[in-house]
Amino acid sequence: MTEACDRSTEPTTMDHELDFRLRLILGVALISIMVGGTADLLMDRPQTWLSFHVVFETLMIAGALVMATTLWLGWWRSAQSVVALQGSLEKQSAERDAWKASANAALEGLGRAIDAQFRTWHLTPTEREVALMLLKGYGHKEIAALTHRSERTVRQHAGVVYEKAGLAGRAELAAYFLNDLMLPEGEREPAPIVDRPHVNAMGV
């Protein structure tokens, strides 16, 4: 899961770096325009500030200033967005690690109980591997790719697992181990009460 998160953040990081370089180049260009235009006006020492040359230079400097300000604001917002994304990912990672730490003992016990039941069903190591991956929610194609087997072989192993366990399929396999898994008493909502119409002895 951590590797998946790292891969998902790589494009964002690369895009941010490219955006930073482009903004830096554009910012330098705009600052150069402002500095160059201002220096040109000061060196020309125009007789009047209403000439075409002066007005053009002033508008160019003002336009560059506006663009540079807009660019800086966009740059700042982008940096804030990246910081927020990194904070969110770190929070998710911390929550995942905390859950793993608190549930580690329970998961180990559940894993041993599941493996013991697999052995009671006389499943082979390969069948136990396929059955466990089915419980984890993997499909036949995914199991085939992860175990380097053909999809047909995986389906055959799954069929043998169901046959040895006396179950109809994946849903019953999951229900066998998870049907009694419930939230703590205080966390469960009471089941809704459904009003049923009264039926007398005549069925009316």
What does this protein structure show overall?
With 204 residues, this protein is mostly helical. It has 2 domains: 2-103; 121-179, Winged helix-like DNA-binding domain superfamily/Winged helix DNA-binding domain (Arc Repressor Mutant, subunit A, Orthogonal Bundle). Helix content is 76%, strand content 0%. It has 6 helices and no strands. The chain has helices at 2-44, 52-120, 125-135, 140-147, 151-165, 170-178. The chain starts with a helix and ends in a 26-residue tail after the last helix. Residues 1-9 and 198-204 have low confidence and may be disordered.
Count of the domains:
2
Instruction: Report how far the terminal alpha carbons are from each other.
Output: 58 Å
Task: Evaluate the radius of gyration.
Answer: 34 Å
Order of helices and strands: HHHHHH
- Beta content comes to under 5%
The number of helices is 6
Structural class: mainly alpha
Number of strands: 0
Average residue pLDDT: 76
Instruction: Indicate the percent of residues in helices.
Output: over 70%
| Major sheet summary line | none
Shape: rod-shaped
- Spans of at least 5 consecutive residues whose pLDDT stays below 50 are 1-9, 198-204
Topology (elements, then pairings):
Elements: H1 2-44, H2 52-120, H3 125-135, H4 140-147, H5 151-165, H6 170-178
Helix pairs in contact: 1-2, 3-5, 4-5
